[in-house]
Design brief:
115 residues, mainly alpha, 6 helices
Length: 115
Amino acid sequence: MTNMLALALALVAGTLVIGWWSVPVIAALWTFVIRRPGAALTASLAGALAWGILLLWISARGPLNAVDGMLASIMGLPPKSLIGLALVYAALLAGAPALLVAALRPPSSLSSRST
């Protein structure tokens, strides 16, 4: 849980400072450094949490609901759907590279030892 929160905060900072494309880079680096099972799922949840935090922060500063409603109606989608799509996109943006790194990295020395 602590790792997920730390990653989410790093993703928030990366998104604010660099942009959306920092999400896959940070998630991939995090997965490479933190070797644990379920890293891709943790990265996905952290991505959605991070962009949820950003959307809450943006909505406190401006009319996010009005913009979401207008864009959803233009696209023929239900209200609030774009917010949900943004969270799913962030989860995929963080989870996919984490899954790739977890699959490609060599096994740790402890798990490769034979008994």
